[in-house]
Amino acid sequence: MENEAHEHVHADGTIHAHHGHTHSHTQTKVVLNRLSRAIGHLNAVKRMVEQGRDCSDVLIQLSAVNSALQGVSKIILKDHIEHCLVEAVKEDDKEAIDKLKEAIDKFVK
Fold this sequence. Notes:
Elements: E1 8-9, E2 15-16, H1 28-50, H2 55-90, H3 94-107
Antiparallel strand pairs: 1-2
Helix pairs in contact: 1-2, 2-3
């Protein structure tokens, strides 16, 4: 569980300054477990490709990986809304709210 202000590193490598609210993640263990499983499935897909397995089978497995990642994303988003965003609203941290909007825009393309 993380309870400190921090920096956000953007995909392009730029770092966004600290903001006032704290992050309290309650689903970290669940997220890490699901990510580990998704990584395992993705490694299995990689092996399938290396072995020249049927493209249809590979696509089916990739679909399962995508679904697993969507599930993890939902958990992270809900946790963020329930904890981080609530705290940001209490502290009138408009930057955190704007960051969530930006993340949602990128996530829901």
